C-alpha cells in the first residue's frame, strides 16, 4: 500500500513538473516498473526517473533509502489516497497559495 502522499514544492519538482509534484512511496521491492526509465542523478543524494518516450517525471529515489516515490498523476483511475502533507513549502512559487488545511513542512 502506498504511503506518505504529499505534494512537493521544491524548486526541482516545480521546474520538472511545471507546478507541484504529487507523489506517494512504496518499498522499492513492491514497485514493478514495466518499460524503460531514464534515471538522472538530480543531486548527490537522489535520482529522478522519467519516461524516455514522453519525458514525464515519474519517480524519485533517495540513494540511501529502500523506498521509491512515484507520481500520483501517472496513476490510471482513482488512487484511494488522501494527501498527508505539503513539503518544501519554503520553496513554493509565489503564484499560488496553499489553502487546503493539509500540514505543511518547510
TrEMBL record:
What keywords sit in the KW lines? Lyase, Metal-binding, Zinc
| InterPro entries, sorted | CENP-V/GFA, Mss4-like_sf
> PROSITE patterns under this entry?
CENP_V_GFA (PS51891)
* Keyword Zinc included in the entry's annotation: yes
Domain (CENP-V/GFA) ranges: 1-97
Q: Name one GO molecular function term.
A: carbon-sulfur lyase activity
Q: Which family does it belong to?
A: Belongs to the Gfa family.
Q: What is this protein called?
A: Uncharacterized conserved protein
Amino acid at each position: 500500500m502506498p504511503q506518505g502522499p504529499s505534494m512537493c514544492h521544491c524548486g526541482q519538482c516545480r521546474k520538472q513538473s511545471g507546478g507541484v509534484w504529487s507523489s506517494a512511496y512504496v518499498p522499492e521491492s513492491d514497485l514493478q516498473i514495466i518499460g524503460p526509465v531514464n534515471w538522472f542523478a538530480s543531486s548527490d543524494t537522489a535520482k529522478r526517473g522519467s519516461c524516455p518516450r514522453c519525458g514525464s517525471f515519474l519517480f524519485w529515489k533517495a540513494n540511501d533509502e529502500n523506498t521509491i516515490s512515484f507520481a500520483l498523476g501517472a496513476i490510471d483511475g482513482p488512487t484511494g489516497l488522501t494527501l498527508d502533507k505539503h513539503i518544501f513549502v519554503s520553496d513554493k512559487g509565489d503564484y499560488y497559495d496553499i489553502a487546503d488545511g493539509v500540514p505543511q513542512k518547510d
